[in-house]
Amino acid sequence: PQVSVTATKVSSVIADGVNSSDFKMIPGATLRYCILFSNAGPSNATVVEATDALPATVTYQPGTLATATGCSTATTAEDDDDIGVDEADPYGASVAGSTITGRAPTLEDGNAFAVIFEAKIN
User: Fold this and answer.
1) Which tens digit of pLDDT belongs to each residue from 96-111?
2) Which of 26, 70, 107, 120 has a Cα at 20 to 30 A from 35?
3) Under 8 Å between Cβ of 59 and 122
4) Is residue 14's pLDDT more than 90?
5) What is the reported pTM?
């Protein structure tokens, strides 16, 4: 059967270097992105992989990739290069230049996984 997997990307400004709250999208501000992959079924999805090219107006911040089952719980650190012991977890993420890739060998029916990372506004 055909499965229905969707990817949703959201971002928020988490710091701008000027304000202590109500952060603004100004040069030097830090954005946190979350890409959430969801499987609406009706069966498991295999080899789930998606890439996201960052706009030229932001720069990826090394060492900020993390994965989990949701955006607010994404704390499993990924090492940016898809190599090493962190790749033994169920989800993976990597960076090549300004392209982020998230992947899961299997995404069960009704489940989701998230990739989070940070970028600075140029």
Assistant:
1) 999 999 988 899 999 9
2) 26
3) yes
4) yes
5) 0.89
